[in-house]
Design goal:
179 residues; mainly alpha; Rna Polymerase Sigma Factor, Chain: A; Arc Repressor Mutant, subunit A; 64% helix
């Protein structure tokens, strides 16, 4: 059950200006859009508007120019929002461990170069046809179909030759030491 804001059922006061209830009913959607432009959360916008309207209601009798009510409420919205973010408290908690993980050390460029050199020497030791297929597939990044087309062989030939070449590279003693 809602408690009525005003006792008067009329939409205008005796001075010819709208009552607070009729003002909120007529201008509420526009004021809510203004409040939403000041906050990121629609629920916070509604709370902000309610607070600003409460301040306006308390000052209703003291407002001399009721034609400037929108400006008064907008100013109340802005001032209320400014007060809210000024009062915002950021809590800090002490803890045993830092929340950030230890950075992983970057690989040593010299070790990476040793591995690249060992890989290339192992590729050079492959038979010519296997070497050509490995270079086209993995160094030139061609698909199996493109590699087959360049070499004039079937896709199955490329698959089997590359498979055998990779097996030889896995068994290469120099690569197992470099890794």
């Amino acid at each position: 059950m809602t408690t009525p804001v005003c006792n008067s059922a009329s939409t205008a006061s005796t001075s010819g200006f709208p009552s607070f209830t009729s003002y909120v009913r007529d201008r509420g959607p526009v004021l809510l859009r203004t409040a939403r432009s000041l906050t990121a959360n629609p629920s916070d916008a509604e709370d902000l508007l309610q607070t600003a309207l409460t301040k306006t209601y308390l000052a209703w009798e003291r407002i001399e120019d009721h034609r400037a009510l929108d400006g008064y409420v907008r100013r109340a919205l802005v001032n209320t929002r400014t007060s809210q973010w000024r009062k915002r408290k950021v809590d800090e908690f002490a803890c045993e461990e830092l929340p950030e993980p230890d950075p992983t050390p970057a690989p040593d460029p010299a070790e990476q170069q040793v591995l690249r050199d060992a890989m290339w020497r192992a590729v050079v030791r492959l038979p010519d046809r296997q070497r050509a297929m490995v270079v086209l597939r993995y160094y030139e990044d061609l698909s199996e179909a493109q590699t087959a087309e360049v070499l004039g062989v079937s896709i199955g030939t490329v698959k089997s030759a590359v498979s055998r070449a990779l097996g030889k590279l896995r068994e290469d003693p120099e690569l197992s030491r470099a890794a």
